[in-house]
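Work Package 3 committed the consortium to producing structural models of liganded targets before the mid-term review. Because experimental data for this complex are still outstanding, the team generated a predictive model from sequence and the ligand definition alone, so that downstream docking and mutagenesis planning could proceed in parallel. The input record is reproduced below exactly as it was submitted to the modelling pipeline, together with the SMILES string for magnesium ion.
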Amino acid sequence: MSSAHNFHTEDDNIQSSDGGIGPALGRVFRLLARDELKRQRPLMALAVFITLVAKVFSVASPVFFGEAVNVVASGAGAGIAGTLIGLLALWALTRFLASALPQVRTMFFAPVSQEAQRIAAVEAFEHASNLSMQFHLTRRAGALNRVIERGSAAIDFLLRFLVFNIVPTLIELVLAAVLLAVRYGINFAVIAVATVIAYTAFTLWITEWRVMQRREMNEVDSNLRASIVDSLTNFETVKAFAAEARETNKFSQHLGRFNRKYIAVVRSLSLLNGGQELVMSAGVFAAALVAGLGAINGNLSIGDMTAVVLILMNIFRPLGILGFAWREIKQGAVDLEKLDGLLAMNPDVADAPDAPDLVLKGGAVRFEHVAFTHEGRTDGLNDVSFKVKPGSRIGIVGSSGAGKSTILRLLFRFYDPQSGRILVDGQDVRDITQQSLRDALALVPQDVALFNESLRANIAYAKPDTSDVKIMAVAERAHLGAFIRALPLGLDTRVGERGLKLSGGEKQRVGIARAIMKDPAILVLDEATSSLDSETESEVQAALNEAAQGRTTITIAHRLSTIADADQIIVVDQGRIVQSGTHEQLLQLCGLYARLWQRQIESGEGATE
Ligand SMILES: Nc1ncnc2c1ncn2[C@@H]1O[C@H](COP(=O)(O)OP(=O)(O)OP(=O)(O)O)[C@@H](O)[C@H]1O
Ligand SMILES: [Mg+2]
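The resulting structure, written out as tokens with the ligand in place, is given here.
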């Protein structure tokens, strides 16, 4: 067993080791045993049965041909043509059934496999969605998607190759060996089994080595793709730095590295296939020779010799994909283990068992001695305490990196504080369901990210069934009305990846519309108007003030004028609340706030009308 780090190249933060095949099969069978798949169970049984029947036909078929050869060799006689036709027909029929039945099996099994994959993927998706912010912040985009995709596909691989390929092949080998021993002599059984063992040993030996090669190739491939995606998504930076040639060169180098790995993989495959052919040919040669000598001695007929060779070639045929199947099974085991690793991850933030829903009583917010430090940091929030009365407006100001956005994330319970507590209407956010907590809150984040869908879908994200009239009314309040009406596609306009087809200000206004649409008890604005020019800002600010009526509002602002009329302002510096009070009180204190205000007045930024 190799160490776990080999499988950790994807930055998906999911532990897995060199997946054992036993545990992987256990996982698959546990999945198949689930109640959701109860209706599919007869189909499963039918699929296994059909596979076994096909193998019996496959083994028996050469016997009929051998008998036909014997009939021909025995020369003339009455009714010989009829016997020949009968034997050849049986041979053709069994041959046909041996290859056609597995197709029938696939027809029966496909729905079972698809349903099992769907169940596994949906479960993993649901689980991953519920994992905490910390998990989602640390994983690499796309890696998670691949874990789910590959993990569920592995279920199909494992079943197809193991249950319908390797195990039936083993059964076929046993049946054939028994038939050979009983009908033609023990020698042939020994040759068949010895050849298969040699073949298998050689294949597994080379395949283990090739697994390493492939893993290296996949690693290079992942890097190659990550590099392309990174370069293409950052096209604006690349262009602005005129770095196209450098990026192309990097791409070319990655491709060169990939090609070298790929060539090694292809070469070892040729070696594998060549070696397999050698072993098989040696086995068939040995069997044919022994049978031929037997025929000369009169112990066997010509038909027997033919049948022996055909039986051997029959068992060797499915072995051709053994190397591939083995590799896929091992990969499938790893993929499944990853999927399991994902399912085993516990969200850092989870609902308490039997947590009740939040009971809203106006939207009071209270932080009590809250301390929180991000993973991998030494400094964080320290002893943060403040109170927001229901329906009032609080402003949070402070320098960049002071911890303002972190305070909001704690309120949303994206993280739990290391000490202290956060109360909404007197209820600790850790004691109530996350769903009910977040239903009561709406956030306009500092960096609004939109779904790559229509404006309609983005604005109505909280309430997808809203009518266009209502959506436009909300858009109007966020000063988006004129913009949307001027678009040829109106609300159907798609906004691009993360909303990149909109200007910074437009994106922010969509974020505001989305929050207003939610109609929350507590409205949380993190620099919600920072990208707007001062005229638009004061208009949107007016709309926000209007939206703030009757609900608690928490506003982070750099431009102090936007929160000057708040009921209370808290000043955060290096993770601590250093001042709090109304605008006038804070100016009189002549502290940090007064200095910030003075600076903004001087630069003209803070000037209000
Ligand atoms: N997920 C994270 N992991 C580690 N550190 C983080 C994480 N998020 C934020 N931080 C750090 O926590 C500190 C506070 O960040 P926060 O976003 O709360 O600042 P802020 O006051 O909102 O600043 P700004 O005004 O620039 O938005 C910063 O030093 C930041 O680097
Ligand atoms: Mg911030």
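Reviewers should note the following from the model. Residues 1-10 have pLDDT under 50 and may be disordered. These observations will guide the Year 2 experiments.
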